Amino acid sequence: MEKSANGNEKIDLTIEEERMNSSIEKSLYNPDGWTTWKRLRQFMIAIIAITLAVYVIYYAAAGGLPAWQHRAVFTTIFLILCFSTFSYRKGKEPGHLLFDGVPLILSIALLGHAFFSYPDIALRQGATTLIDQIVATVMIFLVIEGVRRTIGHAMAILALFFWAYIFIGPLFPGLLGHQGFSYGRMTDALYTTTNGIFSDPIYVASTVLILFLIFAAFMMRTGVGQFFIEFAFALTGRIRGGPALASVLSSGLLATVSGNGAANASMTGPFTIPLMKRVGYTKTFSGAVEAVASQGGQIMPPIMGAAAFVMAEYTGIPYIEVAAYALLPAILFFTVVGVVIYFQARRLGLEGIPGYQLPNFWKLVAGKGYLILPLVIIIFLMVIGYSPMRAGMWALLSVFILSLFKKESRMNVMAILAALEKGIRNAVPTVMACAGAGIIAGSVIMTGLGMSFSRFAVEMSGGQLLPLLLLIMVASIILGMGMPTVSAYVILATVAAGALTQLGVPVLVAHFFVFYFGIFSGITPPVAITSYITAGIAGSNPLRTAVYSLRVGMAGFILPYMLVYNPSLSLDGSVPSIIFGIITALMGLVAFAGFIEGCMLKITEVWERISLLVAAVLLVADHLWTDVIGLALLLIIFVYQWRSKDKNTTAGISTEY
């Protein structure tokens, strides 16, 4: 461990980066045991990825190919990267002649078709040829296979079902059926237009999302990930429950940049989870906190897992307004997660980390604070009217310029090439998911399933809002399980959001409702992928960790309902009513956290715990008299606990979960 000025040991917060984590570095440095063929394959992958990255940046600056051709070329290049790097068998190197080689050759052929068939293919819309139908079929099945390799079987099966539904829909009864469509109509809908595979998800992926993933790769290469972790521990480490609070802050900051909860948990978990366990948190609780923070970071502006950019396209509302709307609920969410952690720390009698073991806050900000300027630049440029794509381009340039200021962050040519490649390669699963979501969205639009599902859901709920919200919540969690943020949101927005707007829920609120539940499906059993990753790091039982993640992240399941029932959270109303609404919402969440944890200033008695639940329910309802009663009840419990807080807060409490 590093020594502090007074000779005491400091905790190690250093991120151990993989020495050669990109194909360009691996192929040039030739690690022991690598064959010439393997080096060549990695080098070609790197060249393809870097070339695509350069084109994407050029496209953001000056434009490029026409819309359909741009999206088709972009998607087929990612198919090539997918089949070059992901084997048909999980955990294996690609190289099988039939199952890896044939899809790769077909992907290259599709790239050639995308280049040379335009503009003729656009002129044939509505009158597709047999060749068009064959090419469309190959593209659809390669996309589904790419989804299977990168995302998993669940989404691949879902995409395959929705493609088949175009033809088997007449077999379904009632509202769920349709009249059926010809193969030519399917080809038009899913391939030759921009309404299927090449619809809004791929448009956003090929313009905004890919730029921000390259931006994130550059940010991490310059040391911003290390800065976020050190900043979080310097700011919160001394507080009771400090390591867990620091985990929430650092993982939240990194997840909003990376846009992937599971990947973020894999990156920060090995540092935050051992520190939480070291100060006395159980391994189950430690894994749950990291899972919630990593998954929840995707609801925090400015990037939000790139789903906010898709939401702006779907709703027609400018991105900066979408991000501004998301800010308050995100702050409430992380505040309540912090409160849960604090209550748990009091419950277990835990303290913070001694100051001498932590980074110096002011030295850290003075030495590395400039690393967050690119995020500030993104927000500033979009506030003054720049598009997200153009703002991302300038922010990317600013990262490179700022990296030159200090030797430890300076990027040489190899580092720049590696960051370009890593940004593209990190995008492969997300782009495959977006293409798969395009198949689903195209099928839903073509068959009218979205409208049918909306009518079906409204009928099932009897036209009542609360039953409909519960129904949509369950559907959103199920459809979102195991999927990346963008693809989960696209499916839910296409299928479910319309049902809410039919009962008068504002468009943006309806989209955020499904967006939140799609995200928090990542910590919801049985497919709680992020919780399972952190459980592996913590050495805890995966199912117990997932269940406890629900406790820690319970605010994520209540906030969507608050958005619907509390207009103040939408900043709708007078200033006093908005302030009062925010306060009551926060107090309601705090009361529920106390009920869940069974502790506030001290361990709660049975009557206190029941009263906290009653107060939480009263504060969620948007009525003055319920808010007043709820606040009074919460105040009574707080005063009672304050007067008796000297009692032992840990007696008889098990620390195993």
From TrEMBL:
Top-rank taxon, per record: Bacteria
Pfam families according to UniProt: DctM (PF06808)
Keywords: Membrane, Transmembrane, Transmembrane helix
Spans traversing the lipid bilayer: 43-62, 68-88, 97-116, 122-144, 156-181, 201-220, 323-343, 364-385, 391-406, 427-453, 465-482, 489-509, 515-535, 547-565, 577-600, 612-640
Keyword Phosphoprotein applies: no
Domain TRAP C4-dicarboxylate transport system permease DctM subunit stretches: 138-577
InterPro entries: DctM, TRAP_DctM-Dct_fused
Record-linked NCBIfam families: TRAP_fused
PANTHER family the record matches: BLL3936 PROTEIN
Protein name in UniProt: TRAP transporter permease
Source organism per UniProt: Salicibibacter cibi
